[in-house]
Predict the structure.
Amino acid sequence: MYSLYKKLLCLICVLLLAASALASTSVKLNADTKFYRSASKSSDSVSVSKGTKMELSGTDDGWGKVTYKGVTGYVQVKYLDAAHRTSAYVNKDTYVYASASHSSSKKSVKVNTKVYVVATDGDYCRVQNESGSATAYIEAKYLSSSKVSTSSSSSSSSSSSSSSSSTSWKSKVVKMNWFDGGSNVLKKGHYGYIYDIHSGITVHIKRMGGSNHADCEPATKTDTAKLKKIAGGSFSWDSIPVILYADGKFVACAINTKPHGDQTISNNDYPGQFCLHMVGSKTHGTDTVNEEHQKSIVKAYNWAH
């Protein structure tokens, strides 16, 4: 019987090694499972143990494309948890599910329940309680970056639930210089939220990379639809003032919405990335500060204060 090491050597002959420039996300297994050659349970596989760390480069139809010991293969998304957790609040009374499907067993969950997002799977987020002892799935549209007003949450529709979020955090909004600590608010591979000051829409995002500014992606198809609504129905390079919520901080920022470049989330209906800027951040193409984005950042900050 081959050892795990020998099996991996055999798989190298038939697996494509990670060679793209896509950013990756550090993940770990939440249960013992299989590491497959392709996105199919019928493909060659090896056993891997709970807690094993891998690098996730994309997801599609319930499968995560991961790199493990230098080999690229596939693991079912339900067995992958991010190495970090992002806090969020349930924005209306709804349900959590045993898997990313309405047909799985469910339990009710109350508005303003605090959860921790550890992964995304299509239009669902995998969430845990504070201790990490309980894990479930909830539709991403029912999560917000802050608590909501209970008087409005019960009547909010699924398409506008984020716009009803409380803005009691406005006094906490700050401006941060990208090159003086700002780039660490939303680290590469981590998830956060952006709040559009005009529409009140909150979008769950992932930072996939970027050095002069943050290259980001909508976390799910639902978030892509929200981003398009923020953009007025058509993605563009126009600058939009937003508030970034990540790592417990609220930061005045600016975004454009035009998809371009690479992507790490393949099932969010957004073919690429968009740019998120802070004070002093620069474009990657010209290596200069974009004045329109800087004006939008001021607008976002002034809106909060």
The radius of gyration is 20 Å. Residues 5-23, 152-165 have pLDDT under 50 and may be disordered. The chain is about 10% helix and 35% strand. The longest strand covers residues 53-60.
